[in-house]
Design goal:
Chain A is an alpha/beta fold. Helix content of chain A is 25%, strand content 28%. In chain A, the strands form three sheets. Chain A has a seven-stranded parallel sheet, sandwiched between helices. In chain A, strands 13-12-14-15-16 form a five-stranded parallel sheet. In chain A, strands 6-7-8 form a three-stranded antiparallel sheet. In chain B, 29% of the residues lie in helices and 31% in strands. The termini of chain B are far apart. The chains are: A alpha/beta, B alpha/beta. At the A-B interface, helix 3, helix 4, strand 5, strand 7 and strand 8 of A face helix 3, helix 4, strand 7, strand 8 and strand 9 of B.
Chain lengths: 311, 249
């Protein structure tokens, strides 16, 4: 039996997060098929065919899939499911929205945010904000999974040569419609795929002060993130949030600035390779997970850091 | 319109969770429990809709053991009108809860169901989407703003790149994100009043739902501990370490 991975794409190319799910699917065993559903997304389907480890691309082009509405995509997954042992997607806002609905339509449980594959039906997933790791076995005939991107390397975006097959659309449920988006524009790398992330917390005191982090981020080609406290305080928008209920990141270098280190924040970044904490409170819990801790006032340390990186 | 709000009892967010020595789960004996924070946001939103005159009645539902009644009392003290407790001592997984809620929805006929986007115990983030799928209703997950517009609901959603707005046909299912509202603390008079509000008791059997778990938990272990490293004294020393020791910049 084959595995179907629901791809996230922008009509031109497959999003980076999906490449991690392809790797996870490869560990389960069986042919990996990538589903590209969208409107005018032929270019993305062709790009998907080049992803290493993909045996076949299922391309479904229809207005019903133009904006990633869960109601329509879940119905499409249901219509394709008979040929598959596993349905998978990366645990992004997109995957988290669609997959449980598809699972329910198939009367199957979902295993969320797997970080390791132990066998075709057995997976490891974090629970309680990563304070425990559960090994679980799915007993339904079809396994529905979401994949935590940080648990698996990304498959190579090139080097493959899968066949592209067109499949019919499954119809528009008419239940919901897309109105619009307010997406933040940034030249910096995406938070979940950046090699370096610098995040600010409540200690930043204002949104304006995030400029101090941005100056450092630009020198390191880093993404900028934030703790829940900073987002709740309105310093930065929601898409900056790193943590249990925000984005999960595991960059090579994570710099936490003015972040105390609440459990729910640590859940989103503690798998980073190297962690730096800069905080004026030497008892801040963030220092317990930091490889390098600097007890300092961030308003002095940040300009100093920006200057030191030029040397 | 009538609203249904689902609430889950979980280990309090401030408790340090410990894995049981026999690796079957986490320690829940003598641990402080509370309403899941995202469910608090769901209750708050329902109460605000009633205060604004959009909602007429709020029914709070909780599925699980006898102590879920305390969580329901919290919802009632915040402003829900009555409670439904689906009593079960099984480990209720998201699909089972979605099926139980579907049965309650069919009985109560609400126009909108509000749930938290995820529970902070199993971190599954599934139940709302599953319920919407089972009902064949529209879903607005990770909501940061709700506006009723006639027979539609405008939902602003928190997505990876920012915010997205959808228009859902009612009836619909919504799951809450953190920025939807800031939940209130129940006042003492309201806590007293909540004691008199009715809670109906139901069971999976009475609702005709097979609530048996579909995912077996084989073991639960502690994650590998991250060692705390060294303190550096200056920014210059930090940059030197990152360049020459960790070699990450």
């Amino acid at each position: 039996m084959a595995i179907l991975v629901l791809a996230e794409h922008d009509n031109q190319k497959v999003r980076e997060g999906t490449l991690h799910a392809v790797t996870a699917a490869g560990k389960i065993g069986g042919d990996v098929h990538l589903l590209i559903a969208g409107q005018d997304c032929k270019a993305a389907a062709d790009a998907a065919a080049k992803v290493k480890g993909v045996a076949k691309v299922i391309h479904v082009d229809d207005a019903a899939y133009a904006n990633g509405l869960a109601e329509n995509l879940a119905k499409l997954l249901q219509s394709l499911a008979a040929n598959y042992s596993h349905l998978m997607a990366t645990a992004t806002a997109f995957g988290k929205n669609v997959m449980p609905r598809a699972a329910a339509l198939l009367d199957a449980a979902q295993v969320s945010e797997i970080v390791a594959v132990e066998g075709p039906d057995t997976f490891i997933r974090p629970i309680y904000a990563g304070n425990a790791l559960a090994t679980v076995q799915a007993t339904d005939k079809i396994k529905v999974l979401t994949v935590r991107a940080t648990g698996f390397d990304a498959a190579a975006a090139t080097g493959g040569s899968a066949a592209v097959e067109t499949a019919p659309a499954a119809g528009d449920t008419g239940l919901s419609s897309y109105v619009g988006s307010e997406l933040s524009k940034t030249e910096r790398p995406e938070l979940t795929s950046a090699r370096i992330v610098i995040s600010g917390g409540r200690g930043m005191q204002s949104g304006d002060n995030f400029k101090l982090l941005e100056a450092v981020a630009d020198k390191l080609r880093a993404a900028v993130g934030a703790s829940r406290a900073a987002v709740d305080a309105g310093f930065v928008p929601n898409e900056y949030q790193v943590g249990q209920t925000g984005k999960i990141v595991a960059p090579d270098l994570y710099i936490a600035v003015g972040i105390s280190g609440a459990i729910q924040h640590l859940a989103g970044m503690k798998d980073s390779k190297v962690i730096v904490a800069i905080n004026k409170d030497e008892d801040a819990p963030i220092f317990q997970v930091a490889d390098y801790g600097l007890v300092a006032d961030l308003f002095q340390a940040m300009p100093e850091l920006a200057a030191a990186l030029d040397k | 319109m009538k609203l249904l709000v689902a609430v889950k009892r979980v280990i309090d967010a401030n408790v340090k969770v410990r894995v049981k020595a026999d690796n079957t789960g986490v320690e829940t004996a003598n641990v402080k429990m509370a309403m899941n924070p995202f469910c608090e946001i769901a209750v708050e939103e329902a109460v605000r809709m009633k205060e604004a005159g959009t909602a007429t009645e709020i029914v709070a539902v909780s599925c699980g053991g006898a102590s879920c009644q305390e969580t329901l009392r919290t919802a009632l003290a915040m402003g829900a009108d009555r409670g439904i407790h689906v009593q079960s001592d099984l480990e209720l997984q998201p699909l089972a809860v979605a099926k139980l809620l579907k049965a309650v929805v069919e009985k109560e006929q609400p126009k909108l169901v509000i749930l938290g986007k995820q529970a902070i115990d199993d971190d599954s983030n599934q139940t709302g989407q599953m319920l919407a799928g089972l009902l064949g209703w529209a879903q607005g997950t990770f909501a940061s703003k709700l506006t009723v517009e006639g027979e539609s609901l405008r939902v602003k959603r928190e997505v990876d790149g920012g915010l997205e707005t959808l228009l859902l046909k009612l009836p619909a299912v919504v799951t809450t994100d953190l920025r939807l509202n800031e939940p209130r603390y129940a006042s003492l008079p309201n806590i007293m009043k909540a004691k008199k509000k009715p809670i109906e008791a139901l069971t999976p059997d009475a609702l005709g739902v097979d609530a048996a778990p579909r995912v077996k938990v084989l073991k639960v272990v502690e994650p590998p501990k991250r060692k705390s490293g060294a303190k550096v004294k200056t920014v210059a020393e930090l940059v030197d370490k990152l360049r020459n020791e960790a070699k990450v910049i």
